[in-house]
Write a structure and sequence with these properties.
The longest helix is centred in the middle third of the chain and has 28 residues. The chain folds into five domains: about 160 residues, Distorted Sandwich (Glucose Permease (Domain IIA)), CATH 2.70.70; about 90 residues, HPr-like (Histidine-containing Protein, Chain: A); about 110 residues, Phosphohistidine domain (Glucose Oxidase, domain 1); about 110 residues, Enzyme I, Chain A, domain 2, CATH 1.10.274.10; about 300 residues, Phosphoenolpyruvate-binding domains (TIM Barrel, Alpha-Beta Barrel). It starts with 7 loop residues before the first strand and ends with a helix. Helix 12 packs parallel to helix 13. The protein is about 35% helix and about 20% strand. The strands form six sheets. Strands 19-26-25-21-22-23-24-20 form an eight-stranded mixed β-sheet. The protein has an eight-stranded parallel beta barrel with strand order 28-29-30-31-32-33-34-35, surrounded by six helices. The relative contact order is 0.06. It is an alpha/beta fold and about 850 residues long. It is built from 27 helices and 35 strands. Bound molecules: phosphoenolpyruvate and magnesium ion. Magnesium ion (MG) binds next to helix 22. It catalyses: L-histidyl-[protein] + phosphoenolpyruvate = N(pros)-phospho-L-histidyl-[protein] + pyruvate. InterPro entries: Dup_hybrid_motif, HPr-like, HPr-like_sf, PEP-util_enz_mobile_dom, PEP-utilizing_PTS_enzyme, PEP_util_C, PEP_util_CS, Phosphohistidine_dom_sf. This is phosphoenolpyruvate--protein phosphotransferase. Its cofactor is Mg(2+).
Length: about 850
């Protein structure tokens, strides 16, 4: 199989499980000393040619053969390990040196049992012996059958670059295997589109005889590229080379969310005995609930007579899309504010779909023929849904749901319908298929569960349901929609079933289970209001991270011992004019008031890097994350920081307000703000000064903790940035997300050093980064000397409960050993062993 005269796809010469060379139990092959290649643990008794080739050498002992492929690649096929010692017994060579062989031609036959008994291992190798000229890329690492595509051979460039780039005029091209789990579905495709849009060059992906421009999400998904499929990327324009490299990198880096959006093991309808009154489906989010069934219907359009004025209809469609864009923007801003990355990724993809040229072109063409905007939009989406559904990929078929979401939203805007369901709290909502926006609305209305006739467990709506803890079932079949409105049902998502005719006893049983669950939560919640002491009596303050006074009130209701971090940059995120001193004072005071008599740590504005504010444009930077961000604002806009400090000094009582400085790297920054605070206190005639703390979120600050603690009242560790700067991994990098793990032993050492430095001056240390909300990390942080954990409001009860089950001295002892481990995953593993999660 030739792609051109240099590249070559080798088919499997044997059937059986595939191994990388590194896993071969032979040091010479495993080290790659013989060349790049792949191994198979064979289950058949014949070795076949992997391509058209000439036999250049046949081992006298009949256990190995060398081929030269037409593109010049030289291949050693070696059957079993140390089989040379069998001196040919059990092998029969079927070809001679110099022979031309075709792809799939039998080369040698062997006696499977005899050879297996006498040699060290049957693991057989296909080695590219001229690896200096070619690169071998595995196509699969799963089990193969003879003839399956196995290894891709591409020539190396003269400079040794591993990716084959041919420069044709101002167009450049490259090939890459797509690493994204499930292939190019909506979120990875959105990432590719976003990457391409950073360049002026035009970019395309080519696969299986089809091409798609990178600016069309629909086009990209329509290629039906699967995981590990090899695709061609081409870019044309002034920055084509840079665009190509960026796209190749984005395509070959799997999204971390593909992993964390893990689907619970699907429980499928097939192979199930029929049960009267029970529908079987797939669990998309676990749970067991009972309640009245509430059916939701989607919009259906009346017949269209046509003959509409195109100009008017285009205008109507544009206006509707603008309205929907605004709604999605609001959802995105909320998701960003609450750091809800799943929600953000899903709705960012919706925004891209709303702009999709393929969808719009089709709709405009219909409009130009006199069709109403409603019908044109609807048809354009229906066609694309069908395309996605016929691609043979369940993952892509489920993305049709995202398109239907946009169809409904734009139709509602076009028809002027208000978009508000009136669903009673506690209901179990049944629909043909729910969309992500339906789900956000329904969860706010307090529904008990969701069930759908169609849909899949990997759909976006399923990811969101899991995130919200809302039991959800999909693929229940159309019988679901024939059920009576208001009928009492049991949704047993854990068991993959919905009971349509539960008797009173069953309903009572499920209600009891729901009640028990609620009670456990309520118990935790009730205990959430008492201080959290470890078994040996150490008090750990569990505070909350909040972004508004409403969230602060929520935190207090949830049992927060205080606010451990108020991110002031989020207080005014929704506006484009800067808040003045008075507005700021009112906002800070509202948070203090919402917290009763508890203290509130207010961080001075932390813009720059990943956080940008419309009303505070900062100069463009080559490396924004390493630029003017956090407290460095004092350097460029000192008047803004003074204004904020003045607002903070006017809250009352000042004793409950603690000020926290972000991104400090040296003591002078702290001393400078101290001076400013003193001066401002003087101007305002204040005798009392609020406590002043320093965030430890760059390694320099952790290493200087002792010097900082001399002048600070407390230290608060920002593990999000501390991970980013210690590990040199962008905290927002989709492909690195699973590796930006604050339980990395290097971070633990920095946290230990921070606590030791603070202890010299009797200062307390808190953690306000995301690690504080991870119950697996609670014993480690306590063991390292942290005394305050600032967590997300909903987790206060859970983290306090965790604290109460720990022994601080044991935490200290075990944590010392964790510092010596070699990776974050090793630490996580050890934590699971030492302090299992309940
Ligand atoms: C941190 O970096 O851990 C932190 C709490 O600050 P932010 O996430 O706001 O950067
Ligand atoms: Mg930070």
């Amino acid at each position: 199989m030739h792609n051109n005269n240099k590249e070559l796809t080798l088919s499997a010469p044997l059937s059986g499980p595939v191994l990388t060379l590194a896993k071969v139990p032979d040091p010479v092959f495993a080290s790659g000393a013989m060349g790049d290649g792949i191994a198979i643990d064979p289950l058949n008794d014949t070795l076949y040619s992997p391509c058209e080739a000439v036999v250049t050498h046949v081992a006298r002992t009949g256990h190995a053969i060398t081929l030269r492929a037409d593109n010049g690649a030289e291949l050693l096929l070696h059957l079993g390990l140390d089989t040379v010692e069998l001196q040919g017994v059990g092998f029969s060579m079927l070809v001679k040196e110099g022979a031309r062989v075709s792809n799939g031609q039998p080369l040698l036959r062997y006696d499977l049992d005899q050879v297996a008994q006498q040699c060290k291992s049957l693991v057989s190798l296909m080695i590219l012996t001229n690896s200096q000229d070619f690169q071998a890329r595995p196509i699969t690492l799963k089990s193969v059958k003879v003839g399956d595509p196995l290894l891709h051979i591409v020539p190396k460039l003269a400079n040794g670059v591993q990716i084959d780039i041919e420069v044709v005029g101002i167009e450049v091209q490259g090939h890459i295997h797509v690493a994204h789990r499930g292939g190019l579905h909506a979120r990875p495709a959105a990432l590719i589109r976003q990457t391409a849009q950073q360049f002026t060059s035009k970019s395309w992906l080519h696969f299986a005889g089809k091409s798609a421009a990178c600016d069309s999400l629909i086009g990209l998904m329509g290629l039906a590229v699967g995981e590990q499929d090899e695709i061609r990327v081409s870019c044309q324009g002034p920055d084509a080379e840079a665009a190509l490299q960026a796209l190749l990198a984005a395509l070959s880096t799997a999204l971390a969310e593909d992993n964390h959006a893990a689907v619970p093991a699907p429980i499928v309808q097939r192979n199930r005995p029929a049960e009267a009154g029970v529908l079987h489906g797939v669990c998309a989010a676990p749970g067991l609930v009972a309640g009245p069934l509430f059916r939701l219907n989607s919009i259906s359009l009346p017949m269209d007579a046509g003959n509409h004025e195109p100009e008017q209809q285009r205008h109507a469609l544009d206006a509707a899309r603008t309205q929907v864009r605004g709604e999605i923007d609001t959802t995105l801003a909320q998701a960003k504010k609450h750091k809800n990355t799943d929600e953000e990724a899903i709705f960012a993809a919706h925004l891209a779909l709303l702009e999709d040229p393929a969808l719009l072109d089709a709709a405009h063409q219909s409009i130009d023929q006199g069709i109403a905007a409603t019908h044109a939009w609807s048809q354009s989406i229906d066609v694309q849904c069908e395309v996605l559904q016929q691609l043979g990929s369940p993952l892509l078929a489920e993305r049709a749901n995202d398109l239907r979401d946009l169809k409904q939203r734009v139709l509602r805007a076009l028809l002027g319908e208000t978009w508000q369901y009136d669903v009673p709290a506690g209901a179990i909502v049944a629909a043909h298929e729910l969309t992500p926006s339906d789900l956000l609305q329904l969860s706010q209305q307090g529904v008990a569960g969701l069930c759908m006739a169609e849909g899949g467990a990997t759909s976006h709506v399923a990811i969101l349901a899991r995130g919200k803890g809302l039991p959800c079932m999909v693929a229940l079949g159309s019988t679901l929609l024939d059920q009576e409105q208001g009928q009492a049902v049991v949704l047993d998502a854990d068991g993959g079933r919905i009971e349509l005719t539960p008797n009173a006893a069953r309903l009572a049983e499920v209600h009891q289970a729901q009640l028990d669950h609620k009670q456990r939560r309520a118990l935790q919640q009730a205990q959430a209001h008492t201080p959290a002491l470890t078994l040996d009596g150490l008090h750990i303050e569990v505070a909350a991270n909040v972004a508004s006074s409403a969230e602060a009130a929520d935190a207090l209701a949830n049992g927060a011992d205080g606010v451990g971090l108020l991110r002031t940059e989020f207080l005014f995120v929704d506006r484009n004019t800067a808040p003045d001193e008075q507005e700021q004072r009112i906002a800070y005071q509202a948070v203090l008031d919402a917290m009763g008599d508890k203290s509130v740590i207010i961080r001075t504005i932390d813009v720059g890097g990943d956080k940008q504010l419309d009303y505070l444009p900062l100069p463009d930077e080559a490396n924004p994350v390493l630029g003017l961000r956090g407290i460095r604002l004092a350097q460029v806009r000192p008047e803004l920081l003074d204004q904020q400090l003045r607002s903070l000094l006017q809250v009352s009582p000042l004793s409950r307000c603690r000020i926290l400085l972000p991104m400090v790297t040296e003591v002078d920054e702290l001393l400078h703000i101290r001076q400013r605070l003193d001066a401002l206190c003087g101007e305002l005639g204040l005798s009392q000064r609020p406590e002043l703390g320093v965030m430890i979120e760059v390694p320099a600050a952790a290493l200087l903790a002792e010097q900082l603690a001399e002048h600070a009242d407390f230290l608060s560790i920002g593990t999000n940035d501390l991970s980013q700067y210690t590990l040199a991994m962008d905290r927002d990098h989709a492909g690195l997300a699973s590796r930006v793990d604050a339980l990395h032993p290097a971070l633990l050492r920095l946290i230990a050093q921070t606590c030791a430095g603070a202890a010299v001056h009797n200062r307390w240390v808190g953690v306000c980064g995301a690690l504080a909300s991870d119950p697996l990390a609670t014993p480690v942080l306590i063991g390292l000397g942290v005394r305050e954990l600032s967590v997300s409001p909903v987790q206060i009860g859970e983290i306090k409960d965790r604290v109460r089950h720990l022994d601080a001295s044991e935490c200290r002892r075990i944590t010392q050993d964790l510092l010596k481990l070699s990776s974050a995953s090793a630490v996580r593993h050890a934590c699971h062993q030492q302090w299992p999660l309940s």
